[in-house]
């Protein structure tokens, strides 16, 4: 078989693989991960179940592929946001920006957001039927977000705007979990919060971000004392 023919076949396989993932997205987003079956996905992709298993050995593997797409989109948004801020941006601006960015992601790409967050917060065992490459890439992309958060916390400590007694790893985990909790509450209870309490979703998210920032920020009185003692 000539090289051109081999390359053509590989390209065709890549196209079919991408189409299967897109079909799986439609099934997962239209129903749920729990309710979806490989038969549903095969039908949506207009292929046989046997053919589907040639490309993916489980719906868990497909779910990881979809999360990878979501993480890539979120990281692309983060990179663009940081470029707009500029290289000299302070840690506080970066932290607030990350909170707003995640909220924006939950609004503009709710299906990807839900796929990622339901995996992070659900009691689902994905140890079986997943190729190492898909699982490891998904984990690596998630760690990029965590690394950005921990590095920004370290920057804040160095700038003297964040408390120097913070454990940046634990603080990053707490901030992430807290923000996800707020965003999930907004996603599930927005109408209730707005109509019963008169609080808009973006107001609640902004208030939550500010409260989180206050909990780790060096207090102004302390800053003044340090400046006077210098």
Automatic annotation (TrEMBL):
Q: Which GO terms describe its molecular function?
A: DNA-binding transcription factor activity; transcription cis-regulatory region binding
Q: Which Pfam families match?
A: TetR_N
Which residue ranges carry the DNA-binding annotation? 37-56
Q: Name one GO biological process term.
A: negative regulation of DNA-templated transcription
* Cross-referenced Gene3D superfamilies: Homeodomain-like, Tetracycline Repressor, domain 2
Q: Does the keyword Cytoplasm apply?
A: no
Q: Does the keyword rRNA-binding apply?
A: no
What PROSITE patterns is this protein classified in?
A: HTH_TETR_1, HTH_TETR_2
Q: Which domain of life is it from?
A: Bacteria
Domain HTH tetR-type: from-to ranges:
14-74
User: What InterPro entries does UniProt report for this protein, alphabetically?
Assistant: DNA-bd_HTH_TetR-type_CS, Homeodomain-like_sf, HTH-type_TetR-like_transc_reg, HTH_TetR, Tet_transcr_reg_TetR-rel_C_sf
Give the UniProt keywords, A-Z. Answer: DNA-binding, Transcription, Transcription regulation
The record's PANTHER family line, in alphabetical order, gives:
HTH-TYPE TRANSCRIPTIONAL REGULATOR BETI, HTH-TYPE TRANSCRIPTIONAL REGULATOR RUTR
Stated name of the protein: TetR family transcriptional regulator
Which source organism?
A: Paenibacillus donghaensis
């Amino acid at each position: 078989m000539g090289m051109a023919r081999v390359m053509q076949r590989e390209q065709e396989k890549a196209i079919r693989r991408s189409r299967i993932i897109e079909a799986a997205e439609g099934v997962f987003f239209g129903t749920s991960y729990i309710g979806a079956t490989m038969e549903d996905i095969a039908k949506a992709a207009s292929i046989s179940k046997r053919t589907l298993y040639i490309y993916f050995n489980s719906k868990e593997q497909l779910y990881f592929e979809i999360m990878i797409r979501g993480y890539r989109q979120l990281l692309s948004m983060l990179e663009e946001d940081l470029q707009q801020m500029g290289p000299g941006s302070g840690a506080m601006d970066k932290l607030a920006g990350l909170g707003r960015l995640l909220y924006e992601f939950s609004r503009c790409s709710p299906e990807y957001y839900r796929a990622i967050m339901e995996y992070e917060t659900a009691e689902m065992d994905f140890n079986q039927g997943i190729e190492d490459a898909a699982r490891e890439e998904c984990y690596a992309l998630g760690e990029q977000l965590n690394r950005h958060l921990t590095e920004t916390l370290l920057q804040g400590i160095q700038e003297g705007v964040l408390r120097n007694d913070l454990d940046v790893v634990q603080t990053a985990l707490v901030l992430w979990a807290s923000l996800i909790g707020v965003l999930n509450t907004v996603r599930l209870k927005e109408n209730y919060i707005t109509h019963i309490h008169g609080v808009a979703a973006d107001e609640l998210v902004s208030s939550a971000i500010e409260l989180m920032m206050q909990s780790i920020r060096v207090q102004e009185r302390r800053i003044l004392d340090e400046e006077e003692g210098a």
